[in-house]
Amino acid sequence: MEFSVQTANPAKAETACLVVPVFKDSELLPAVAKLDDASERLIDQLLERGDFDATLGNVQMIPFAPGLGTERLLLVGLGEREKCQEAAFLKALDAAFTALVKLPLDDASIAFTDVPVEERDSAWKARKTLEAAERAVYRFDQFKSKPAPKPALKTVALLLSDADEAAAVKEGARVGAAIGEGINFTRTLGNLPGNVCTPRYLAQQAEKLASDSKGALSADILDEDALEALGAGSLLSVGRGSREPTRLIVMKYQGADDADEAPHVLVGKGITFDTGGISLKPGEGMDEMKFDMGGAASVFGTVKAVLGIKPKLNLVFIVAAAENMPDGAATKPGDIIKTLKGLTVEVLNTDAEGRLVLCDALTYAERFKPASVVDIATLTGACIIGLGHHATGLLSNDDDLALDLLEAGDTAWDRAWHLPLWDEYQEQLDSNFADLANIGGRPAGTITAACFLSRFADHFPWAHLDIAGTAWHSGKQKGATGRPVGLLTQYLLDRESDAQVDKNDS
Fold this sequence. Notes:
The protein has helices spanning 30-38, 42-48, 86-100, 122-137, 166-191, 199-212, 224-230, 233-238, 294-309, 354-365, 381-387, 399-412, 445-454, 485-505; strands at residues 2-6, 18-22, 59-62, 73-77, 107-110, 155-159, 217-222, 247-254, 264-274, 314-324, 336-338, 344-346, 372-377, 392-396, 416-418, 436-437, 462-466, 472-473, 479-480. With 506 residues, it is α/β, with parallel strands linked by helices. The longest helix is centred in the middle third of the chain and has 26 residues, at 166-191. It is elongated and about 80 Å long.
């Protein structure tokens, strides 16, 4: 999506469509008031007569706007002014772009940067505007023989009243466009069927990202022979029953001025299809297990966003990719496997495979001497029971890291909720025959899964994001959401800001 920032009189904006935000119970915003004056009180009259209801999310197209430079006017309801916080602002944005992409126009101007949202500046609003635009034009139709026409919208102009904010708004829009592209990349990887998006396909995507990056990104792919030599028995055990070979994918981004600066590491669970293995899942809804690589997809999407934004950080992205299938060679309940760390694991349930691929990936991350490690995984159904589909579960061995992620989630409006990781929960993983079991029973399933991972993250600040409830939608609107690319990218951008502050202080 291309964008521009304009500070001219909105009444003179020459555009195919001008998007105008309107409160239900308050006077018109200054920019909107200028439009109203130039159009002989067109907007005010529509409100007074009740021809437009400015309830949050309502939209109305005005096909002819006399006195204005635009060809058409799109009114968007913001609801009551005192209730216009982040959620309301974003809902109105989504409503605006949902309406825009249905129209046969390739450009639009939007006057949302002046909408007052408490504690959010114009740069944040510009960022969310471009994210919303990118999400709205997304279509996943490559497997339809007769796909519907794609949205024509290609350019968005952000109308701004204060010229002094233009630079910040332009930067916010640039970041938003990159994050939006990353979100859409994640959605595409998640939506692809399991017979297309395999571990080898993910490896190819990593190599393509590296090839297209002009040297900004490198990709190393560890095949099964390399993993066997390494000793990654836990990761390999998950893919034993599949004809699709397992892969460990490692991407490196060197953006810091100091090449030796400790990197931040993201680790994604990449189970490209999860039958449950020998502990076979019920057939109903099993098609959605193509989304079980949502953690890996979000890592890829964050890589895409990072390559667009180009932060001055050193980063490592690791994806543990495997397919979990039942077969004569598959791991069985009761089998004992040896991890890359050297710990042995009694596999009590082969459907608790995500932690088995992640534990070796976390051990592999040690070699980079990381500043922080965050793993992302569609790990437990228990997280959906506890938090529903609104919040990502967050557990960590470092309170500062947890707070940083929570703050990033609030900024990105891609929120997480902090759960405890107390030592008392570790006892549920005791095994009579191995160092630990791969499940801890029904109580606190999300927490004990993180407890398992914590055994492999004792040499660095680490956090775990359980996205089982947030990575995709079920039912009629089935499809990948692109979360938590926004949270992860914001977390990394905040680390860049912190590094710059530390550099200035020294």
